[in-house]
Fold:
Amino acid sequence: MQPTEDLVFRVSGVAESPARFRAQTRRFTVIVDEPEELGGTDEAPNPVEYVLIGFGGCLNVMAHLIAQELGFTIRRLEIELKGTLNPDRLFGRSEAERAGYKHIEAQLKIDADADETLLQEWLTRINDRCPVNDNLSNPTSVTISVTSLKNETQPLT
Structure:
């Protein structure tokens, strides 16, 4: 079997305030905001909520794909996610704990024509193949760089 070419996903955006970010990906505009108690306007999910949303979306896709491969039908699937993090590092109060989630729980509730043995195989495959689960469970190389906007050519108006 020939290896498949890597997929590349891109997001770009602009800060609309210290707590609000407007992002573009493909043809979609997505707003990221913080609750009022964190300086935002509470008009959209915050970044760590989007992590859970993305994870839930990925679990949904993989659940249906793998159910089809295993030959059973999902009549209904509910996914509940919960993440726990300590905000001390985020706010610069302490470096004792990591900044991100300490633990994420995902609960899949399913109505399907599959027995417990088949559902366990299904769950094992989801855990193994879900890209977001892989990113959350394993180190991923991340590069963050900075470029001054003062150096970029601005169009004349």
